[in-house]
TrEMBL record:
Coiled coil: none annotated. SUPFAM superfamilies: FKBP-like, Triger factor/SurA peptide-binding domain-like. PROSITE patterns: PPIC_PPIASE_2. Its EC number is 5.2.1.8. InterPro entries: PPIase_dom_sf (IPR046357), PPIase_PpiC (IPR000297), PrsA_foldase (IPR050245), Trigger_fact/SurA_dom_sf (IPR027304). GO terms for molecular function: peptidyl-prolyl cis-trans isomerase activity. Residues 198-301 form the PpiC domain. It holds the Pfam family SurA_N_3. This is peptidylprolyl isomerase. The keyword Coiled coil does not apply. It is an enzyme of class 5 (isomerase). Keywords: Isomerase, Rotamase, Signal.
Length: 350
């Protein structure tokens, strides 16, 4: 959850490596290209939103007890361009763009509060770690001349790059301090986790797309369409046929068949609804809303797969707890921040 240096097309780019969980969610689809199968979502951020910004050279301004930071319009466009180049599938679905804009703004706010807290705590970067990172970057270039050329193209000097790396190291140190607070799981917790993660459900779904920034009226209209199809299924219509006719994702041609899924492979509301179905043929009692729209979900079968290795389960559970510790502190820090955006440039529902 912390910014870093990226190497892209042989050039040094001053862009955040952090793509917020929101953006990762949008891109974390399985091979079937179905939006039901994304990584679990994060909750809405706890920052405050202030009055709009009208300055055309500014994308956003964030203020907090740590001071004030500005994301310029040029920086915003640069980050957006990088994301679109790296993930060209976003351009195929314009409905995702508001979430991408939101991700850039949220990452900007995260960096502000994290860097502010790092400064407040006086966390320092280990000089040896900084030099090691710098050497690793140098080694990626075919010659010292190519490295210097890349620095010049990005308007950097070796000292300014070293300063950026030092901040990255401070961020990493800060994250590690937070993660160290996570409580290791007990043997019983590990075994329970292994059995739970081994459970699999084979489901079909029908997706009715809804943009993340849709109005209440739009949401109501889409939900009504989903409910109408659900009523038809309850009256005897074939689920697979309804999926082929109405579903708006890549699984439609397969009758909405998503295959077997395990916990952690889908967004949380979808997972909860799917695993709550008990018997083969059961369908969700109402449309299930996720950030992708409304879903109708039908259980085909359940099975208990092979439990993961105990050591792997322990490590995964510990990593989840570390992430929870980071997320909890991050929410506390974000609650101190107020962001103002330029709505003429940033198309995001904050």
């Amino acid at each position: 959850m912390f910014s870093a240096l990226l190497l892209h097309a042989g050039r040094l780019l001053r862009l955040p490596a952090l793509l917020s969980l929101t953006l990762l969610l949008l891109l974390g689809c399985r091979a079937q290209d179905t939006e039901a199968n994304a990584t679990s979502s994060d909750e809405d951020r706890s920052y405050q939103v202030g009055a709009p910004v009208s300055d055309s050279t500014v994308a956003a301004i964030v203020t907090s007890e740590y001071g004030s930071d500005t994301l310029t319009a040029e920086e915003f466009r640069q980050q957006l361009s990088f994301i679109l180049q790296r993930y060209p599938q976003i351009q195929m679905n314009p409905a995702l763009m508001p979430e991408v804009h939101k991700s850039i703004i949220e990452d900007f706010i995260v960096r502000h509060v994290v860097d502010g807290e790092i400064a407040r705590q006086g966390i320092q970067a280990d000089p040896a770690a900084v030099e090691q990172e710098l050497e690793q970057i140098r080694a990626r270039f075919p010659s010292p001349e190519a490295f210097q050329e890349a620095l010049t193209q990005d308007g950097l000097t070796e000292d300014s790059l070293r300063g950026m790396i030092a901040q990255m190291v401070r961020q990493r140190t800060f994250r590690e301090q937070i993660e160290s607070r996570a409580t290791p799981p007990t043997d019983d917790e590990v075994e329970q986790f292994r059995q739970q993660q081994a459970e699999e459900v084979h489901v079909q779904h029908i997706l009715f797309r809804l943009a993340p920034n849709a109005s209440e009226e739009e949401a109501a209209a889409v939900k009504a369409r989903a409910q109408a199809v659900l009523d038809s299924i309850r009256s005897g219509a074939d689920f697979a046929e309804m999926a082929r006719r109405h579903s708006e994702d890549g699984s439609a041609q397969e009758g909405g068949d998503l295959g077997f899924i395990r916990r952690g492979e889908t967004v949380e509301p979808f997972e909860e609804a799917a695993f709550a179905l008990r018997d083969s043929g059961d369908v969700t009692t109402e449309p299930v809303r996720t950030r992708f729209g409304y879903h109708l979900i039908r259980l085909l079968e359940r099975r208990q797969g092979t439990p993961m290795d105990a050591a792997e389960a322990r490590e995964q559970l510990l990593q989840e707890r570390k992430q929870e510790a980071v997320q909890h502190l991050l929410e506390e820090l974000l609650a101190k921040a107020t962001v103002r955006i330029n709505p003429a440039l940033v198309q995001a529902q904050l």
